[in-house]
Amino acid sequence: MTKAKAYAALDPHSALVPFEIERRALGPTDVQIQILYCGVCHSDLHTARNEWNNTLYPSVPGHEIVGRVVAVGEQVSRFKVGDLAGVGCMVDSCGDCPSCHDGDEQYCEHGFTGTYNGPVFGGENTYGGYSQTIVVKESFVLRIRHAETDLAGVAPLLCAGITTYSPLRHWQVGPGKKVGIVGLGGLGHMGVKIAHAMGAQVVLFTTSASKVEDGKRLGADEVCVSTDPEQMSRYTGQLDFILNTVAAPHNLDALLQLLKRDGTMTLVGAPAERHPSPDVFGLIFKRRSIAGSLIGGIRETQEMLDFCAEHGITSDIELIPMQYINTAYERMLKSDVRYRFVIDMATLN
Ligand code: NAP
Ligand code: ZN
Questions:
Q1: Percent of the chain at pLDDT above 70?
Q2: How far does CA 279 lie from the centroid of its chain?
Q3: Collapsing DSSP states into helix, strand and coil, what is residue 69?
Q4: What topology is assigned to 2-159+296-348 in CATH?
Q5: Is it true that 2-159+296-348 and 161-292 share their CATH fold?
Q6: Residues near 143 by Cβ (< 8 Å), separated by ≥ 6?
């Protein structure tokens, strides 16, 4: 066992506070990582505040983890002490169901083990990346090929990167496709960068007029302020695919009508309250679809990291000390993140 400093939510209503946790003793297939940086995902906030009604307390969030390997079990072959390594949203799955066999551990039929908040379907609580160190089985540890100087900006790829990459790949976004990305937050800004790198024509939909220039800088060919009906009407029936990253309930119909015939809007945002039910006529008259997508499998996460390394893609971040986390959450709720908070774990020492 190793003792580690961490930050935890102790109940849904209080600020996160310093907290000490224990990490398990290194097993033969385990890798121990000194956490250098951890991204702050909106899911951390949903969980800390029990917005999905499934939080186990104390809760140590954080599933965008990068750091350095400090110990490896005797059977570990892909990592050695000193390597850079990453951990995303999962630390285990059954390994034996059809989804796991397909490399889609996030859809494990027995429920994957989240990096924090334990197995999805109950059981032991796991503690995430707002901490000094973590022990994870080798098969759930990712290799990092970016330059070490980019490391803080790599952390958000472990959730925001894969959650946008996976649906963009699944729905075959690429040259000749016109793609809408909705919401320019942590996920959305990765969606813009990745869809652009895949060769698609990218239209960003934002509620924040102040983000228009950034949207273009990040790789959007066009930016539409979605609160302006006149701007929205220009895109009616224009898009092949929409990736919707918004973290709050909103009117889906206004976006669905932007799809071409046979177009799909995939929801990755996971608001605490439901969206208003969409109008079925907007779907059936154009054979449009609404879909959902959950993070991505381990193999695909490695593919995404390598794709981003090859294309020079990292996250645009604001590096914060651990002690700033509660302020960071408040700013995230105001859509005031440019475009991911990343915690410098050295500030926990
Ligand atoms: P974030 O950084 O807070 O970004 C969300 C963005 O949504 C905001 O920046 C804002 O962009 C837009 N937005 C916020 N409130 C809105 C409203 N009322 N109406 C319209 N747009 C609004 O959050 P994130 O970390 O990217 O996460 C986004 C969501 O994805 C969260 O619910 C999170 O839990 C979920 N998530 C899902 C998965 C998955 O596997 N499916 C994985 C990770 C996260 P603009 O200012 O541009 O409008
Ligand atoms: Zn996340």
A1: 99
A2: 29
A3: strand
A4: Quinone Oxidoreductase; Chain A, domain 1 (3.90.180)
A5: no
A6: 78, 79, 83, 84, 85, 86, 302, 305
211 Cβ inside 6 Å of ligand 1: yes
pLDDT digits (tens, 9 = 90+) for 278-291: 999 999 999 999 99
Structure tokens at 144: 């990092």
247 CA closest ligand 1 atom index? 32
Question: Which amino acid appears at position 217 of this protein?
Answer: R
| Cβ(295) – ligand 1 distance below 6 Å | yes
Give the largest CA-CA distance in the chain. Answer: 63
Domain boundary assignment for the chain = 2-159+296-348, 161-292
User: Count of CB atoms within 10 A of residue 245's CB?
Assistant: 26
- Side chain identity at residue 163, one-letter code: T
Angstrom CA distances, 69 to 21, 108, 239, stand at 19, 27, 44
Task: Give residue-wise pLDDT tens across range 209-256.
Answer: 999 999 999 999 999 999 999 999 999 999 999 999 999 999 999 999
CA–CA distance, 6 with 8 (Å, rounded to integer): 7
Q: What six digits make up the tokens of 23?
A: 């990490």
User: Domain 161-292 classified CATH 3.60.120.10?
Assistant: no
- Does 226 contact ligand 1 (Cβ within 6 A)? no
Ligand with the closest atom to the CA of 318: 1
Number of Cβ atoms within 10 Å of the Cβ of 289: 15
Protein residue with least CA distance to atom 10, ligand 1: 183
